[in-house]
Design brief:
Helices cover 41% and strands 17% of the residues. It has 229 residues and is of the alpha/beta class. β1, α1 and β2 form a beta-alpha-beta unit. The longest helix has 21 residues. About 2% of the residues have low confidence.
Length: 229
């Protein structure tokens, strides 16, 4: 079965991850696959083009902009975001697609459900996991949600619902903002448990303290904004 969905690969210097994961990506089950890239220099763009994957250049850097480009360029009604860094399990891509086909507006691969596994092998990542769960708890309290992982970028969303949310956040705030605004508008959100793997090469750009401070401001701004977006 082929799903009427677009898979967006969010790449930035992830050659090692792409090399390791390429053959596990469900190209035969998803109608469209392309990558968004802000200017990788490690050979990953060349690798993807050699494999027949269209690469869309991202002129303005940042994860938020990559999400918006992905939705704008997608030809299908369901959009799935995947980072090929080893943290995200390709086997969950189809599960996310199915969740939208079941009628959900958004589906999130949760690292904190009972059946999940979060990559917390070192102290820095343990602190990051604690922060993720803390922000999710605040968002649930303020906006009436029941999520376990509001921040994970490994997710799928209906294209029209994404556009209705009008997300304008920068960087890693895009995922948190999408979750918050979906809760505000009472969109149907499904979480599936995921086993977060170890990063394969590359370098994480999610810096704990600066990102955390941005999340505090984003949470406050969203509280003040209400549904006026």
């Amino acid at each position: 079965m082929t799903h009427d969905a677009t898979l967006v690969l969010l790449n930035y210097n992830e050659l090692e991850g792409l090399t390791a994961l390429h053959d596990r990506l469900p190209f035969d089950q998803i109608e469209e696959v392309f990558a968004v890239d802000p200017g990788s220099t490690d050979g990953s763009v060349e690798f993807m083009k050699k494999k027949g994957i269209t690469v869309i250049h991202q002129s303005i850097r940042g994860r938020g902009e990559a999400f918006r480009i992905g939705v704008r360029e997608a030809k299908y009604p369901h959009v799935i975001f995947f980072s090929p860094d080893g943290n995200e399990d390709p086997a969950d891509i189809v599960k996310l697609a199915r969740a939208l086909e079941e009628g959900y507006d958004m589906a999130i691969a949760s690292r904190f459900m009972n059946e999940s596994r979060a990559d917390d092998a070192n102290e820095l990542i343990k602190h990051r996991s604690f922060g993720n769960q803390m922000f999710t708890s605040f968002a649930n309290l303020l906006f009436g949600g029941h999520l376990t992982d509001s921040i994970n970028g490994f997710r799928a969303v209906k294209r029209d619902k994404f556009l209705a949310l009008k997300p304008d956040a920068h960087g890693f705030g895009i995922e948190f903002q999408l979750s918050i605004r979906a809760m505000k508008l009472k969109h149907r959100i499904k979480e599936i448990p995921t086993a977060e793997g170890d990063r394969i090469g590359g370098k994480s750009t999610a810096y704990t303290f600066s990102t955390g401070w941005y999340f505090v401001k984003l949470l406050w701004n969203e509280w003040l904004l209400g549904t006026r977006f």
